[in-house]
Amino acid sequence: MERVKVVASRRYGTLSPLRYPGGKSALAGLFADVIAALALPTPCYVEPYAGGAGAGIALLRNELVDHLVINDLDPAVHAFWHSVVHKNEAFVELVETTPLTIDEWSAQREIYRAADESDLLALGFAFFYLNRTNRSGVLRGGVIGGLAQTGTYKIDARFNRSTLSERISAIGRLSDKITVSNTDGRAVILAHANDTNAFMYIDPPYVKAGSQLYLNSFEHRDHTALAKVVNGIKGAHWLMTYDTSPLIERLYAKSFQRRYALNYSARHPGQADELMIASRYVADVIRQTELATTDASIGT
Ligand SMILES: C[S@@+](CC[C@H](N)C(=O)[O-])C[C@H]1O[C@@H](n2cnc3c(N)ncnc32)[C@H](O)[C@@H]1O
């Protein structure tokens, strides 16, 4: 298969408050170009497997889309987004005042482990706290600097209170343009499948995923069931990223597919090939912007 360099007209920085291993904020520039070329009157950007929702936040903050749908089945990821959108001031206050100590880290880990969904603010903040204080943002990983805090980097290395408060407040100001949900990604895709104003970025758990990174209960039959839903989309525009796998190439054999390379920071230093699959009109736009190359990368 052809490997490509995806060239976007500009880059958007990191605007998600979450660290997501394998996060796709870098794709925001490509999505911006695609959405502009599609000339949707009031674009609605949908992430059925949102995680850090890095690209979506960048598009909404830059007024390139009118509405953002953030869905994630993981109760803690959902609690985070729900709280940031619906309890924004309380969340910002926690970001500004919660101590960055090993005692506090242990307490937040207990809240995360208890997974009590009756207090979404507490659960969502605990998720965020661990995401910002654990190595590589891995929830079940250890704290940066170790329990004895003897490492070069300490617990606060990735917790810049003012930067994070600013990112979270900015999302709060846009809350009437954000819908947060906690259901299976397929249900969200079906709900928007006929909406010609919708652009969906579908980034499901991968076939060979590092299951410790995030909720990953996807098996062969889930990939197959998802393909059935995506292949049946009629009106909405969509773009999907996956790890390269013969199963996925086969499931989406009738759709536009390209390999591209992405930099991973957490588990895959250097570049790893990924698969990009797209709906018809999205594929037309990508074809116009891509440059065939053997040295594939996302660049500006
Ligand atoms: C690969 S990650 C997405 C990364 C994200 N797009 C980003 O760039 O930051 C997949 C996400 O899907 C969520 N997830 C797993 N199974 C799901 C399901 N059946 N429905 C919806 N979300 C699911 C996980 O909790 C995880 O956050």
TrEMBL record:
GO terms for biological process: DNA restriction-modification system; methylation; mismatch repair. One of its GO terms (molecular function) is S-adenosyl-L-methionine binding. It comes from the Bacteria. Keywords: Methyltransferase, S-adenosyl-L-methionine, Transferase. InterPro entries: Ade_MeTrfase_dom_2, M_m6A_EcoRV, MeTrfase_D12, SAM-dependent_MTases_sf. It catalyses: a 2'-deoxyadenosine in DNA + S-adenosyl-L-methionine = an N(6)-methyl-2'-deoxyadenosine in DNA + S-adenosyl-L-homocysteine + H(+). Its EC number is 2.1.1.72. It holds the Pfam family MethyltransfD12. Belongs to the N(4)/N(6)-methyltransferase family. This is site-specific DNA-methyltransferase (adenine-specific). The lineage of its organism: Bacteria, Bacillati, Actinomycetota, Actinomycetes, Propionibacteriales.
